[in-house]
Amino acid sequence: MPKLVESFSRQELETAQQTVPSMSSGTVSPLRDVPLRLSAKPSLPFPSPSRRLTNDCPSSPSPAPITLYLRLVSWVCSMGGLLFGYASSSINDLMRLGPAEVGVVISCFMVGAGIGGFVGGRLADRIGRKRSLVLFDALFIVFSVCTSLAPTFTFLVIARMFYGFTCGGISSSAPVLLAEISTIEFRSQSVSMSLLFIVFGELCVFIIGAVFGNIWYETMSIWRWINIAVVIPAVALLFCHAFLVPESPRWLAQNGQSQKCLDTLRRMRSDSLQTQKEFREIQQVVNANSEETNFVDILTVPWVRCIMLIGIGVGFSQQCYGVIIGMVFGTKLLEEGGLETKTALIGNIIIGVVSFFASWAGLFLVSRFGRRPLLMTGQIGVIGMNILMAICFGFFPFGPFRGWLTLALLLVFLTFGQGFISTVTWLLTAEIFPLHLRGICSGIGMSVAWGTAFAVTMLIPIGIHSIGMAANFACLALLGLISLFFVWNFLPETRNKTLEELEKQFQKRDWTALKREGQNERDRMVEEKEGKETEEGTAKETTEKQF
């Protein structure tokens, strides 16, 4: 009999206790007062190996499904990237400007984006992620109109700088909000979706620019109509962000609004137990950082300073390899390669399509593989493509062959850049920073990214007419090697980790844990269940020994 008892799990025995028929009455009654004698060897507090092989058995819990409301909010919030992508490329190809003027018009947008990223991060900490996003949406509409109506080149540069300022604010507020409202399993897709919309916005501009450029290329003011067309979706997004998107539950908890935090979590989570657990984790982090914090902590607190340096490295890695060249100077590159202007405009559509599908693929890759291996794979790919581009421009003569070869290399370059590097770095900027400084730190990281993009966009047009394209791409390959060294040695792995778990690992300086993937939600639930069963089994055995 003892051996027979051993072959069942404790859960099955307890179930049997409640359903065995009573011998005295003939009815089913629980045997609550009958002690169950176990053998000296206790039964295992988890299912046998044969039962654990099946994923659909009751003892193998699965993560709670993503709610429709969370998916809707993520989509609406991510669509702010559409405004950025459209605005960054809306006037680059159809303005008749010299190389230096092109560099000024494009780079002033990046300067504004860098400043906006910093200010937006600061505002996100002070007034909330949602309010910051809505504010920059409204400013985006204003400066879109100002840019389109610019009467002089000087006015255009100033208006476009403020235009970039609003986009930088959106780029620092939206990813943080997305990261803080999402579940562990959905966070990578949710945050990366905003990057997908940025690329989609650029693709829309490429298509409109190619159509208008081939039909009304001689019309000098065509760029104004292309630029102002974005106002219509911008107004729609402003209302959606204002009335549909909730405030970040983590920001609410950080600012003493615990009940609103819990209410928001309940609206976006389908499992009440998961909601309570997540709420407790948030409260623990908030209580651990209950003292007044400010910008000086970034410089004085060692573990925060360490994270900030990593964030700066991530921002640099996002742009240093030259992705901005393909997305902003695509037409110019193809013309330098040897294609005619109208052919280059059509080639730009191909660039946009490939970039979009690469970003779309990255959306799924980043949720299935670690951030570190994906980022390093992308960096190795773009370094190789930069070297091949340098060879292409250095050894092949100007003409159609070099033009089409440039397009082919550029497509592979953007596949690695958009599908691997941009997706991962965009996500990391929203993940790695501590709750009490997440907005400002994320803003600084985005400012570094747009500052790097500014340097690249300012130097490339001038470099084309001085040191040449081959030397430009060789320099970008060197910067890529520096970035790869940083990622290999210092980048943490954030996959399958809660934001609170990451913060605790940084506080402990546990680099072994930081570079290792966390557990997925299913394994977490199984481990928690087994832990509870083990505790219950230990408590029961202790009680039996006492009697």
Automatic annotation (TrEMBL):
Which residues span the membrane? Answer: 68-88, 100-121, 133-156, 162-181, 193-216, 222-245, 307-329, 344-366, 378-398, 404-428, 440-464, 470-491
Q: Identify the InterPro entries for this entry.
A: MFS_dom (IPR020846), MFS_sugar_transport-like (IPR005828), MFS_trans_sf (IPR036259), Myo-inositol_Transporter (IPR050814), Sugar/inositol_transpt (IPR003663), Sugar_transporter_CS (IPR005829)
Q: Does the keyword Transmembrane apply?
A: yes
Domain Major facilitator superfamily (MFS) profile residues, every copy: 66-495
- Region annotation (Disordered) ranges: 517-547
Query: Which UniProt key words apply to this protein?
Result: Membrane, Transmembrane, Transmembrane helix, Transport
User: What is the membrane topology listed in the Swiss-Prot or TrEMBL record?
Assistant: Multi-pass membrane protein
Q: Which residues form a coiled coil?
A: none
Q: Which GO terms describe its cellular component?
A: membrane
* Cell compartments where the protein resides: Membrane
Source organism's superkingdom?
A: Eukaryota
Tell me the Pfam families matching this sequence.
Sugar_tr
Q: Which family, according to the similarity comment?
A: Belongs to the major facilitator superfamily. Sugar transporter (TC 2.A.1.1) family.
Which PANTHER family does the annotation name? PROTON MYO-INOSITOL COTRANSPORTER (PTHR48020)
Name it. Answer: Major facilitator superfamily (MFS) profile domain-containing protein
